[in-house]
Amino acid sequence: MESASVTAEHHHGPPEANQSSRIDRQTLGIYLFIITEAMLFGAFFASYFFLRVVANTGPWPPDGFKLPVAVAGVNTAILISSSFTVHWALESVKRGNRRAMKMGLAATWLLGATFLFIQLNEYVHLGFSARDGSFGTIFYGLTGLHGAHVFVGLTLLAFANIRAWRGHFGTEPKDHLGVEVPGIYWHFVDVMWIIVFTTVYIL
Predict the structure, then answer these.
(1) H-type helices in 50-132, by residue range?
(2) Could you tell me the pTM of the whole model?
(3) Is residue 108 within 8 Å of residue 82, measured between CB atoms?
(4) Cβ within 8 Å of residue 61, ≥6 positions away
(5) Distance (Å, rounded) from C-alpha 188 to C-alpha 190?
(6) Residue 203 — very low, low, confident or very high, per pLDDT cuts 50/70/90?
(7) Closest CA to 199 of 191, 154, 111, 119
(8) I need a surface site. Which of 48, 55, 143, 156 has the fewest CB within 10 A?
C-alpha cells in the first residue's frame, strides 16, 4: 500500500505526449500564425468577390482602371523563384553546406526586396489610388496587405541572414529552426501572392 501511494504521488497531471506527437514550439507557432493570417486574407477575398459579383453591375475592372498584368506576371515569377532559393538554403544547412545556405538566404532576401520594390513602383504609376471607387480600395487593400506580409518576411529573412553569417545554424533540426521558420512563412507569402495575382490580375 505504501509503495502504491508513493507511485500515485509522482504521477499528477496528464501523461507526457508521445515523441511522435510533439512539434517544436517555434514551428507550431508559425503554423498557428499562418492559419490566422489565412483567415485575414480570406476576409479580404470575400470582400473582393462581394464587390465584384454582387455590388458591381458593369465591367470589372471598371472603365478607367488598367492593371499592368505583364509587369505583375514578371514580379510573380520573381517571388515564386524565391521559394526555391529559401528551400535550397534549408536543404543546404541540413547537409552542412553553410556556403550554399548563406547564398540561398541572401538570394531569397534580394528576390523578395526586388518584388516589393517593383510593387511599390507599380503603385506610383498605376494612375489611381485607394480612394478611387470600390475597385481602387479593394485592389490596394489586397495587394497592400500582401505587401505588408512581404515586408515582415524580409525582416525575418534579414535576421536569418545575419545569424547565418555569424555561424548560428547547424545540421540538427533544433539548430536550423532560424532558417526553417522564416522559410515556412515565406512559402505562405508566395502562395498568397499567387492567389492574389490570379484573382485580381487574371480572372
Answers:
(1) 69-94, 98-125
(2) 0.86
(3) yes
(4) 67, 135, 139
(5) 5
(6) confident
(7) 191
(8) 55
Task: Check: CB of residue 156 under 8 Å from CB of residue 182.
Answer: yes
For the record, the C-alpha cell of 99 comes out as 556556403
Residues composing the chain: 203
Using the structure block, give the residue that is written with the C-alpha cell 526553417. 180
Q: What is the C-alpha separation between 176 and 94, in angstroms, rounded? A: 8
Q: Look at phi and psi of residue 92 and say left if phi exceeds 0, alpha if psi is from -120 to 50, else beta.
A: alpha
* Dist CA 104 CA 182 (whole Å): 13
The 3 state secondary structure assigned to 48-71 is HHHHHHHHCCCCCCCCCCCCCHHH
- Is residue 97 classed as helix, strand or coil in its secondary structure? coil
> Of 111, 105, 100, 103, nearest to 86 (Cα)?
105
Backbone CA torsion sign across 42, 48, 53, 55: positive
- Residues 7-63 pLDDT 10s: 444 556 665 555 444 677 888 999 999 999 999 999 999 999 999 999 888 889 988
Cα diameter, the chain: 86
Q: Tell me how far CA of residue 86 lies from CA of 41, 74, 94, 142, in angstroms.
A: 23, 19, 13, 24
Cα(70)–Cα(46) distance, rounded to whole angstroms?
26
CA geometry: angle 158, 70, 50, nearest 5 deg: 85
